[in-house]
Design a protein that fits this description.
4-stranded antiparallel β-sheet; alpha+beta; Alpha-Beta Plaits
């Protein structure tokens, strides 16, 4: 079993898509381990997106993820690659480049507001789960 972090970003919450996103994860066979609706504070957002700190879009990323509530979740699946299973379900960052059948391909409208975050590696999942759900670390 392995775990990964999923964030239904503010645009997903605002558009009422969290149920659809969680349904797709559960329909795949993944199990919800932790779930919390929260407005992510600026310090946590800056830490979460630290790898992008020197990029020109960093301030916009932080402003977007902190603007209103997100649904933050830990999901679990069999094997060592739950993060990868989730990333495939999510689809490409750019919804226009994401195939039909993926969350972003079916529901996404633009790159800057692409509905959902999923950890991009085992190490990222471990770090992100510890950041948002320290009791599970």
């Amino acid at each position: 079993m392995s775990r990964t972090l999923v964030i239904c970003k503010p645009d997903a919450v605002e558009r009422g898509l969290t149920g659809e996103i969680l349904h797709r994860l559960e329909r795949k066979g993944l199990r919800l381990v932790a779930l919390e609706l929260r407005t992510i504070d600026t310090e946590t957002a800056r830490h979460h997106y630290a790898e992008h700190e020197n990029r020109p879009f960093f301030a916009d990323l932080v402003a977007f993820i902190t603007r209103s509530p997100s649904l933050v979740a830990v999901v679990e699946g069999p094997g060592d690659d739950t993060w990868q299973v989730v990333r495939i379900l999510i689809g490409a960052t750019d919804p226009a480049q994401s195939p039909p059948g993926t969350i972003r391909g079916d529901l996404g409208l633009q790159v800057a507001e692409n509905l959902v975050h999923g950890s991009d590696a085992t190490a990222s999942a471990t770090r992100e789960i510890a950041l948002f759900f320290p009791a599970l670390a």
